[in-house]
Structure prediction request, 256 residues.
Amino acid sequence: MANTIRSLQRLKQTGKPIVALTAWEYSTAQVLDRSGVDLLLVGDSLAMVALGYSTTLPVSVEELLFACQAVRRGVTQALLVADLPFGSYEQSPEQAFATASRFIKEAGAQAVKLEGGYPRMVKTVNFLVESGIPVLGHVGLTPQSVHQFGGFRVQGKTTAEAERILYEAQALELAGAFAIVLEHIPSALAADISRSLSIPTIGIGAGPNCDGQILVTHDLLGLSESPPPFAKPYLDLRSAIAQAVEQFSADVREGK
Ligand code: KIV
Prediction:
C-alpha cells in the first residue's frame, strides 16, 4: 500500500519507526522506493551534495522541480515530499502557496517541507494546510539559516534554545504540520519533543529517540565528499566507483 501522511502518522501511533531518505533522480528513487523507504524527500541538500555549493541557499525552484519530476517517475510507494528552496516561501503565506502548488501540480509531490517554526512560519504552514497542501516542518539546525547560526552547528544546547525549539515544534503541530524534521539537536531534546507531540518527528543527527530517521542518501552510501559527523555511512560507494572505473579503464587500455 502506498504511503500517505495518515499512514505515516499511524506508524507513530503503533510505535513503528519511519524510514526516510533523500532522492534527486529517477534510478536511485526507484531503488529506494522498491527497498521499502516510507518517505522520500527531494531535499535542497542537492545544492551541496549534487551541485557542489557550500550551502543549500543557491538552489532554485526550477532545479528542485526538475529533480522532483524525475523522482516522481521512479516512486510508487513512498510519500514524496519536496523541499521549498530558500527565497521561495519566506516572504508571505501567498508566496509559499504559489511555490508549493508548483511542486504539487508540476512535479507530483504529495507534500512540501519548509524550514523554521514559531511565529513566522506557523502562519504559512497553516495557510498551506488549509489550502490542501500537507507540510513537513523542520526545526533545530535549519541549513537555510546557516549565516544566521554562524555555521552548521548543533542547535538547542542552551536551555533557552531548547525551549525555543520545543515551542516551535509544538506551534508547527498546532498549525497543522503532519510531521517535523528535527535536525542536529541534542538527543534528550529530540526525545522530549517527540514525546510531547502527537505527530511524528523524523530525526537527522538528533539521536535514536525520534519517531523516524532521515539521512541524505549520498551520506548513507558513502558518496558525499564531506558528510556531517552524525551521518553513518552504510557503504563506501566512492571507493566502489573508483574501483569500477579503474577496472573499466584497464580493460579499455588493454583493448579487452
Ligand atoms: O535537504 C535535505 O536533504 C534535508 C534533510 C537532510 C532533512 O532537509
Q: What stands out?
A: The chain has one domain: 5-253. The radius of gyration is 18 Å.
